[in-house]
Amino acid sequence: MSLSAVLSADGPSPTPSESGTPRVPTLQDAHESATNAAGWVEQNWSTWLAIGLRVLLILVIATVLRVVVRRAITKLVDRMSRTGQAVDGSGLGGLLVNVERRRQRSQAIGSVLRSVASFLILGTAALMILGTFQINLAPLLASAGVAGVAIGFGARNLVTDFLSGVFMILEDQYGVGDTVDAGVASGEVIEVGLRVTKLRGDSGEIWYVRNGEVKRIGNLSQGWATAGVDVTVRSDEDLERVKATLTEVAERMTKEEPWNELLWSAIEVLGLDSVLLDSMVVRVSAKTMPGKSLTVERELRWRIKRAFDATGIRIVGGATAMEDAAAADPTAGMAAPSVYSSTLSPQSMAASPLPPSTTK
Description:
Helix content: 40-55%
């Protein structure tokens, strides 16, 4: 059979104009599409309306709950900040409270609690919305768990620093303005963060200490400090006169400004700390404002020295102790001149070698 016969048997071929022109939808086609869409909406509108109302209800409840919880946390933190002022009704308790430290601690605690609350509430709401759309949450939760474990394992140092910072702030171990010894560094705290604490050293340098690296902390600004002065006098001094002089100096210093504010207790003469053959040590001590012990010790030494000089009490190694000492003979340690130093002495002549004999 020939090709022309096959083509004629299949029917007339379409013209180029009929095959290349797209079919234009008619009014009847548009009417059918609108009818089908209206029917689908009529059949499913109740389901979608229920889903929308459920999602809206979840969002409203989550938003209201988040606002209520954040406001409750703010009030709780403010109450903690106010009750910190009433730790002790005395003047000592009032001075223990640092305004900047309390403010920063309250802000840090409130920020952490608000962030955790928002994450839990919004995360739960997002999962409930996904469940409303009939989405299987098991693979999503499994993937999130695996990702969380991987991130936690890779950033374990960061997690350790963060958790250490949270507990450090909650326990109020130190704050802005405190002088601390963190082991790896020491100085005054200038900023407290959840991951890093900034310290300013004695020479002005700034130390960035990770909270997770701090194994022990020594706070030199909490409570009170102790100023101790050891006064070394001769063993033959009258102890009653020494004690009376020290007591007079202590009473006068306690009543004068600004020392009456720095001293949080009376200056006490504790008594003899040690007794040696040629000296004895009398110890004087007092409680001071945190960080002011060295200042009080310097002033106390200055006053004690002036009082001892006025009363004639001798201090070991001082100027008054050397006044009665006789001047040492500068020639006492020198050896006597030797008789061999003169070449004309009989000893030198006898020790001289004999002249050589001459032979004829």
